[in-house]
Amino acid sequence: MKKTPLIFIALMLALCCCTSPPGDGKNKSTSITQISENTSALSLRDDPLARCNISLQKDLCYWNAGKKANDISFCDRIIGQADKDSCFLGIAEGMKQLALCEKIADKSVREMCYANYALDTKDYSACKNISDIANQESCYYEVSLDLHDMTICDHIERIDTREACYIGHVEEKRDPGICEKALNRNTSDMCFYILAKAVQNADYCSRINESNLMNICKYTVAVAEKDQRICTGIEYLDLRLHCDALTGSEPSACDEIENTDERDNCYGDVANLTYDPYVCEKIVDNATREYCFKNLAKTLKDESICWALNDYRNNCFYDVATNVKNADICKEISSEDYKTECYRKVAESADVPGSLCAELQKQANRDACYTELASAKRNASICENLLEADQRTYCLARAKNDSELCQNIKNPDLQDHCAGTITRDPAKCDRIGSASYKAIGLKDNCYARIIEAVNDSAICGTKEFSEYKYRCETLLGG
């Protein structure tokens, strides 16, 4: 008997399963439409250019697609010059191609690209492309530290800056010869101070010419070494007594200090050294006294100390809660905004139940709380608690760490905040409007999120964060 070909059987089965019942043209039409829609959806998903061409936020879409694929053709399609430059910068860094920096129109961004390339590739020759002298010198300095090569400092033209570059290596090399070669007396003094701290040797302090720095140097080494004998070489009486109190762990030495501020600081330092809250009570200035108690509460992990404070009480609860990773302590904070921030910080390393967010009175704080928990836990289902569409989309983008979802946010400021924090691109924060206090706060928050995510003190000195330098250093514990 003749066998039926297998391909014929497969074809008949396909026709059997897909064909609509007789006379039901509607089902057949729907089936074809669904196939067409599915095909279109697959086509858009597989073709980022097609997706971006129909996007309401084309520039952001091109920017994301370009960085994801390391394809500069997407950057060329961006209309906004700042976003176009940011796109080129990101791809140049990703591909480590110096030539791509030339495509950046803005001079400061282009020179940042040169500096980033030099640091990423450890190729100091790229620093010469930077026209701004201070930034060029900084480039040579940073690469010299990364390569542990002091000879790179020789490329710095200005003598004072070149010598400052040399002393940047003294802590590692511990060579007094570096300090001895310095022509500038201030540079030489700072060099010996850094060397004395590095090797814990007060003899180098005696080679410092400037009196204040020499005394501070001896105090620093004496306290670090807990060597009261070094204190005797300090010329200033109050500083010597302060040194005696710390090296002998004896607060009574502070009693003899004449200057009130110096005496208060002495008590505070001894309290932190001896973990004795009763020493804090001897401090005259209220702010300094409360700060002393706050530090002890954090060190001792004891939130009960916080109840004795007034001005610093909320700060105290926050410090203890984030130190011991206990969200229940956050509940003692009276300020809802600060309480929300406390939950967010604890959630970074510990489980925080969503029920705590529900207890917050302000809708904005509840939304922020749920968003931060969703982001920390990478749990998008938490975002279902948010009622407002933009906030819910923002929450989903953060939870999934997907900047493309930010394009669906209608509020332009929130959209830029979303994209900036996820991609860690300060250029997105720059675009946040400044017409209202709320926008200013959102912009500041955008920078702060990037600072915390990068966790690199070097970023505090960059152009993007110059306005937020103090906050940057504070967030990083600087």
What is the CA-based Rg, rounded? Answer: 31 Å
Tell me the series of helices and strands, N- to C-terminal: HHHHHHHHHHHHHHHHHHHHHHHHHHHH
Poorly predicted runs are: 1-44
- Total number of β-strand segments? 0
Give the termini distance in whole angstroms: 88 Å
Backbone shape: flat
> Would you tell me the overall average pLDDT?
83
Oligomer classification: single chain
Strand content: under 5%
Largest sheet composition: none
Structure description:
The chain is mostly helical. It has 28 helices and no strands. It has helices at 6-18, 25-46, 48-53, 58-69, 72-76, 81-95, 107-121, 133-147, 159-167, 170-173, 176-180, 185-199, 211-225, 228-231, 237-247, 260-274, 277-280, 286-300, 313-324, 327-330, 336-347, 355-358, 363-377, 389-400, 412-423, 426-430, 437-454, 469-475. It is flat, with a radius of gyration of 31 Å. Residues 1-44 have low confidence and may be disordered.
